[in-house]
Design a protein that fits this description.
single chain, 85 residues, mainly alpha, two-stranded antiparallel ribbon, 4 strands, 42% helix, flat
Length: 85
């Protein structure tokens, strides 16, 4: 018997983009579509506000954006993980 424990708190932040791309490939998603998804997820930047001041921009290297595409990508990763168990 196997068990799979999934912590959904901050779920999108914990997903490796490269692993998602590989999972999409394994599900047979067209390479052209995967490249389009990569274009949406690359070049993500953020900054921190403290009081009225903002930090310099810094790149976000891991995780998914909180947008309309992320639930679908996260679902692919989740289905893959469940299938592996």
């Amino acid at each position: 018997m196997h068990q799979l424990l999934i912590d959904f708190q901050k779920a999108y932040n914990s997903v490796s983009r490269e692993i998602v791309y590989n999972i999409l490939n394994e599900f047979g998603i067209l390479v052209k579509l995967i490249r389009l998804i990569k274009m949406c997820l690359n070049e993500m930047y953020s900054r921190v506000q403290v009081g009225k001041d903002f930090s310099d921009m810094f790149p976000i290297m891991n995780g998914l954006k909180q947008d309309a595409l992320s639930p679908l990508l996260y679902s692919f990763a989740l289905v893959y993980a469940i299938r592996m168990v």
